[in-house]
Every structure is written in C-alpha cells, then in structure tokens.
Amino acid sequence: xxxxxxxxxxxxxxxxxxxxxxxxxxxxxxARAAGQVLAQAQVRVDRVICSGLLRTRMTAxxxxxxxxxxxxxxxxxxxxxxxxxxxAAIPEPQLREAFLxxxxxxxxxxxxxxxxxxxxxxxxxxxxxxxxxxxDPNWDTALLVLHGGVNxxxxxxxxxxxxxFLGGLEQAPGCLNVIDVGGRHNILRVLNYxxxxxxxxxxxxxxxxxxxxxxxxxxxxxxxxx
Length: 226
Description:
With 226 residues, the protein is α/β, with parallel strands linked by helices. 38% of the residues lie in helices and 12% in strands.
C-alpha cells in the first residue's frame, strides 16, 4: 500500500515536516477502505510492515483494524520515503522540474528528488530491506504500508530485476498493489487499486503534479496581501 492522503502545507504557506504529518480525514477513509477490501477477500496477512513515519503507521493501523489483522506492526526505517532537500533552495525556474522529474518515465539513478536524495540512493537502502524480507521463509502474505517513491522503486525492481526506476507506476494515496513473489518470476497482479475511486476519475494529474499545484497555491496565498 501507499499511505493515505496527508497535507504537507499549512494555509499560511508554511511547509510541514513530512516525517510528522498525520492522515487527513480522506486518508483515514482510504486506509479503512483498503482494509475492508482485504477483509472481503479473506486475505490472511502474516506480517505488516510500515516505514515508521506517522502517515504509514496510521494507515497500517486503520487498515489492520478494518481487516481485523492481529499481528505486530513492524517498523522498518530503511523503507522511509525518498528524502527531499530544502524547497526554498530550489530556484523558481527549476521548481516545476524538481517536483516532476523524479517520477516521470525511466528515471536515471543520479536524479535527485527535490534537491535531496537520488534515485540510486533510494534503491541502495530499500532493496536490501526488501531482499531481507524475501529471504525470510516464515511468511506467506505480507502487507507493506509505504510511500509513493519507495513503492515505485520496489515494484520496478521486482518486475525488472534491476535498478530501473519506472516513474510512471502511479501510486495514489491509499492504493493497493498485489505482487506474487518467490517463484522464478515475480507477477504483478494489481497496481494502484483505489477502493474509493476505482477508475481514478477524480483527476488526470499525477500525485506529484497535484503536490506541485498545491505548493504553488499555498505560496501564492501566503504572498497575497489582505
């Protein structure tokens, strides 16, 4: 899963620290809906892993409650989201590209996310964690509640067997993905399934385009005199 919806900006234009943002009401509804899908499908979950950041922990807790999953919630900080730099340090003409370039097409490993961590660095810390899970024979179905960038990295690696980041693997808030692993070939069964918006007709913008538009909106509002 990707975590449910959050708000990264105050109406004043102040940027909230991404490590501490909670789910919005919409995000809670998305998490519960995902859990209800698991319950209806009678999926037996042996392990639940989140990144430890508040938004993934809350999503996991609401989904587990809805699905009646009674296992310990594990926190793996190696699976935290790709780390951005300081938005204020990015020149205005480069801002749009900084938001969109890391999640578009086949992304080069040296590409930095918002002036911070590179795609290569994201792979370097997340793939060993995934491999650790894959090497453990003591589970059949695991629920990983993570982030948009991390999910793209893990799914890309599982599908290609290499560090090829497929930015076009959209990950909407609260979405479910299903991947069969452990055989000769990994099989992607479900991608970006959103129980509350199955056809995702609410928007044609990507998550990063929406985030960029939201950032521009709060910046404009913060600069507009009353």
